[in-house]
Each structure stands twice: as C-alpha cells, then as structure tokens.
Amino acid sequence: MRRRSGAVNLRRSSAGWARGGRAGLNAVLRGLSAASPEFRATVRGLSAAVATGALHDWLAARAAAVVEAARRDSPAYHALLRGLPGIPSRAAPLAALPVMDKQTFRGAPLEQWLSRRLPHLMRREVATSGSSGDPFVFFRSRRLTDYAMTLRAMREFDRWALAAPPARMVSTWSEEGVQEIRHELRSIYPRRLYVTNLSPEVAVDAVRAFQPQIIDGRAQAVFRLVDALARADALPTSLRAVRFTQETLFEHQRRHIEHAAGVPVFARYGSEELTGAFAHSCRAGRYHVHPLIGCVEILDASGRSTPRGETGRIVATSFVNTAMPFIRYDTGDMAQRPATDTCPCGSPYPSFGSLEVSRRHGIRARDGRVFTDALLAQYLILDIGGVSPHVLGFQYRQLGEAHWRMEVGFHHGAACAELLRRMQARADTLFLPALTLEISSTDTLWRTEAGKRVLVKPLGVS
Ligand SMILES: [Zn+2]
C-alpha cells in the first residue's frame, strides 16, 4: 500500500517548475475561454434573469436552444424527435420529448449522436466504469465556451463552501496506493494532493503537512480519511470544509465529520455524462443545479413530474455538452422534489431535496472496512486497461461473510477468460485477505420488472 508514499516530497521539489508552467497555461486557458462572446452573453443573460425573477423562462429558452441544435446537427436526435409534434412551446420545451437513458443511446451508432457542427478535435471520448452497472462510452465537448461555463459553476460552488476557491485541496483517487501532489492542465485548483480511495488512512501525515482548505472525494474514502485524521489528532488547522461526491454519505457519518473536524460538510452531484459540477448542496441541505450547466426534472416511472415532496428519478438536460447532447437523460439516481421552489439558503437556482445516489451498496470486509459497489467497479473495470469496452454489465452476489462474487456480463466475442484472469488477479492483490471477491462471467444480468438494473444481492435475497 505504501508503494508510492515517498512520492510527496520528491514531486514537490522536482516538479515545481512544471507545476508553475501548467498553472500559467491554465490561467491563459481560463482567460481565453472567459473571453468567448457566447459565454459572456450567457452569463449576462443569467444575471439579468435572476435579477428580474425570470430564471424559469431563461432556463426554458436555453433548453429549447439545446433541443433545436440537437435536432438540427445530430442525425440520431433528428430521427428520435421526428414525428413528435415539434417543440410545443418555449415555456415547456422538454415536456413532449422522450426520457432517454443509456439504452436509448445504444439504439443508434455512437457517431450518429454527435453534433456534425463540432470538429473531431473539439470532442473527447469518455469511457465510464459503469458504477451504476452499465458501462458506457460517450463523447464530451472540448469547446472553450462549454469549459468556461463548467469552470464558472465550479467556482461559484466553491464560494458556497469556502467563500473562495481553495488553493490547496485533497482529492481522493482510485489508483492503488496513490499519494502525490499534482497540478493538472484545465484544473482551477493550484495544488492538489491525491490520496488513494482504497486506504486513505495511510495519507494522514501527508494531509496534515499539506494543510488543505478542503478535502473532497468519494464519500466513504473522505469519511475514513477525516476519521483517521481525527484519531491521530492530525486535523489540518487550515481545513474549512469537507465535500463528498459519487457515493452516499450516511447521516451518522456526516455528523461524525462535522463534530470531529468542526467544519461544514457539502455534497456535489454530477456524473461523467453531466460534468461533476452539475449540482451542489447548500447549507439548507438542498442540491442546487447550476443554470449555466443544465436543468433537472424529478419524474415518476411514467415520465410525469413527481408530486411535490415526493421522490422521483433525476432526469437531466445538459447545456454544456455540445459534442453529444444529453437531453432528458435518466441519471439512474433518485431525489426528492422539494415542497417549495424557494430554498431557505436564499439561492435563486432551482434545487432538489434529499438525494439518493441509487444502487450504492456497502460491501463489508472482515476488518470492518466498507467498500461500495461503485468503488469495486472502478478498480476492477475502469482502472484495468482494455476491460471496460468489453463489459456489458455486472452485479454482486454475497456468498458469505466478507465473501462476494462479482458476476460480469461480457459483449459477444470478448476474450472472457483472459479478462476474468486479469480482474481476479487485481481483486486478490487489492482486497485479500480482508475481502474475498470471486470474479465470474454471467449471461443473466438481474433487472426489476420495470427494467432497472439490480446491482447487489446480499445473503437471503433471492
Ligand atoms: Zn439552498
């Protein structure tokens, strides 16, 4: 586990120049993107809409523009929306459109969903681990304007949590044993210390020395890191907030962090498809969707708006993926539609209530550690080169105490035996003896009657 623990000091001293260079390049990139006339007009439009109480209409117009562009520029959207009665009104541009999911996108060749207006260089292929059970390949926009909108939303969310963007942030990362300081191109954070999701406890000394303003990452890894810092009496005095994402943070864990660290705990909601900064929790506990990034509907199983106060599916429309539009996209997550539009925190941005990052289950090891199904998928599917394109889906079946089987469905023609051998070797290295995880292939992926994937079957569930 401590394989790379010496990396912190080494990198800090030798990579200083490179970091400075990248920081300069980042500033140039930020300046360039923020100078885009489209970005400036959109931000001005949003400010005016908020000031005059016309945000609802402004969002509807933005959504209408996204739908219109998709219909015009993407052949698959053109076919999908053909025969529909057109966009019924600019006030409700989405209501008549179908709700889409990964299956919808698989219904046509990937290239058919891409905008013909955006040159190849302006998009980037992204493969997701399928932490929801369905690995997925799509394209993300590289347009500077889309980048600028995302950046703007991230900075605003940072101001909610910290009053200013953090200069030093600790992020959890999936790579085994990682513990190093990086500065990435296209990052707004000047310095980041990455610590492994698998055993964040080993990073206690490095985190204390780094003096971060924020600790950010997968909920369960963040919880374990803060807990370990508190036990070692090593909580950085610089810490101003803790922020988690991707997984559920249970209420008792949130209270534990707030009590131990004495700082507020925030949550970020997003996904690979929607950008990680789609929504952010406020001090009133709601999640606000940033209007520059997109909009969200909370819908029931039949696609109608959920009654206020009730829980429904999060169906999102992205405004920042010009390369491959996501319109009325079923995220697979559930949230409560709030009883009132206005939030006690005062933010005018649309919000949803208590979020249930669905299908996240704890898989408990013999030493008391809890791994989420999503984290295991990250290590065993996404992080092993060449595996994810062959995986159709996966599920976990409990066989005994700290003994599970990961059942993987492969695409026809995949070299299953070789893929399984590599996955098994990784699982044994990472998790034995604390957790026994057998990897096997399956032809049957469980679904509910409604067609939703069921990821985890604990003992006693047939
Ligand atoms: Zn709020």
Write the layout of secondary structure elements.
Blueprint lengths: L6 H8 L1 H19 L2 H15 L3 H19 L1 H7 L20 H5 L16 E6 L7 E6 L2 H19 L5 E6 L5 E4 L8 E6 L7 H7 L3 E5 H13 L9 E5 L5 H11 L3 E7 L3 E7 L5 E3 L4 E6 L11 E8 L10 E8 L14 E2 L2 E2 L5 E3 L5 E3 H10 L8 E10 L2 E8 L5 H16 L4 E6 L14 E2 L5
Parallel strand pairs: 3-5, 3-6, 6-7, 7-8, 18-21, 19-20
Antiparallel strand pairs: 1-2, 4-5, 8-9, 9-10, 10-14, 11-12, 12-13, 13-15, 16-17, 18-19
This protein binds zinc ion.
Zinc ion binds next to loops.
CATH fold-type name of the domain at 144-358 = Rossmann fold
Structural category: alpha/beta
Strand line-up in the sheet with most strands: 4-5-3-6-7-8-9-10-14
CATH superfamily of the domain at 144-358: ANL, N-terminal domain
Largest sheet: 9 strands, mixed
- CATH level 1 name of the domain at 144-358: Alpha Beta
Bound molecules: zinc ion
Task: Return Rg in Å.
Answer: 22 Å
